[in-house]
């Protein structure tokens, strides 16, 4: 119980601390958070809208989570992100649970610690996006499948089907396709793909349960939008993204595999040895085999997809953490462990030493972050952890790896406490959100940072031509005009506007401009 308590404590601190500390400057967060706010404001449980227009990107489960967060904490960043963080907590605890149930407490400890030491895992579950919900139900569906396959008890399959339905409700077809391919491969490898074993799953009851969970909302939104939402979601946001790809998000077949290596640092250093263990024990350790296949299905699926984003491969994290945790827990408590972990430990140490330097040069050369190189000092726990790891390595490999894990977890917490908030303070959203919120007339020209819609808490009309904007300004006074582009020189052609400010968007090539009607226009 000691290890379970520690993992629970670490998870709560990492996922929930400073949850509302930064604005929703990330595009997906901004759109999702505002969509949920509009649905709540309009007492609308079926049709998602953003800025008053139909939003077809994702199903409604994440919006329901955000609306629940708004009821608990108010319409703010914490409310939008709370249930994402809860998904992270549940994923870590579920991974600890299944590893402990079949491999013991030591493997459970290292599997959960692998997840918590990953900065990307923590970030992923602190965003107001659908991915945390998908990862949770994808993970649970596979864990429940394994328990059902092993025990041959129907109760586990019932929970599996419920999780599959919620996965579909979270992000669409991938909520069924990824686990489904995994189940099929696992049963093939274990030679249990027989009619008798398939009938134990009671697939007709399973289809009924999945449809009972997922279908009502899909049916309702199709009816209420005349099929417009359904057509756009399945064709544009699923089929086209897989087959054609989003501009700017294409890449090599190998890119998803690199995403997994980068996303699960620092313990992904052990990934190759862990996967070797999956292969050598494929006939004797079915849970380890399932973990390897689960990660492989996710990686290959998105390697074949034309759209490649690092968050797409994140459903593989819990399963890779199981494989890594099992390997680390199996290191012998003698000098042999030094040899078996030498390369990986030194790689983690080098990474810990290089990250502060890399962050320094990144923030020092990224507009608009020229004067915040001092942020890299907040990462000094990483090299301190690396030095500690080297000092205690000969005495105990476990203590050495624990030092690195704790250093990464503490650094992640520190980043959310101060550096990320300092960076966020330089974003146009943070600088002008209060002005946009209180100003009586706010419009946009061509494009705008969608975070402003969340902070305005009302629809922002968008004009695409100069004549449309001028016509509006002719009959309205005291108007705030937002725009966003790489080059804002076109705004000089719009008469009777004074520039309040132009600021570079964070981690983007675009800039946001804030303009105001000149007083002479209304005279």
Structural commentary:
This protein is of the alpha+beta class and 523 residues long. It folds into 3 domains: 15-333, no CATH class; 354-426; 434-517. It contains 23 helices and 7 strands. The chain has helices at residues 2-16, 27-41, 61-73, 77-103, 105-117, 119-124, 131-151, 154-171, 174-189, 195-200, 203-224, 228-243, 255-263, 271-280, 286-304, 317-329, 336-364, 381-392, 397-417, 419-424, 428-438, 451-456, 466-475, and strands spanning 49-50, 53-54, 441-445, 462-463, 479-485, 497-504, 511-517. Strands 3-5-7-6 form a 4-stranded mixed β-sheet, with helices on both faces. It has a two-stranded antiparallel ribbon with strand order 1-2. The longest helix has 29 residues, at 336-364. The chain is globular, with a radius of gyration of 25 Å. The N and C termini lie far apart (74 Å).
Task: Provide a quick synopsis of the model.
With 523 residues, the protein is of the alpha+beta class. It has helices at residues 2-16, 27-41, 61-73, 77-103, 105-117, 119-124, 131-151, 154-171, 174-189, 195-200, 203-224, 228-243, 255-263, 271-280, 286-304, 317-329, 336-364, 381-392, 397-417, 419-424, 428-438, 451-456, 466-475; strands at residues 49-50, 53-54, 441-445, 462-463, 479-485, 497-504, 511-517.
Radius of gyration: 25 Å
The DSSP helix count reads 23
Average pLDDT, all residues = 92
Spatial separation of the terminal alpha carbons: 74 Å
Count of β-strands? 7
Uncertain segments: none
Overall shape: globular
Helical content (DSSP H or I, runs of 4+): 55-70%
Tell me the number of structural domains.
3
Structural class: alpha+beta
Order of helices and strands: HHEEHHHHHHHHHHHHHHHHHHHEHEHEEE
**Largest sheet, if any?**
4 strands, mixed
Beta content comes to 5-15%
GO molecular function: pentosyltransferase activity
Keywords: Cell membrane, Glycosyltransferase, Membrane, Transferase, Transmembrane, Transmembrane helix
Transmembrane segments: 82-100, 107-127, 133-149, 176-194, 201-219, 253-275, 287-304, 316-333, 345-362, 374-392, 401-420
Main location: membrane
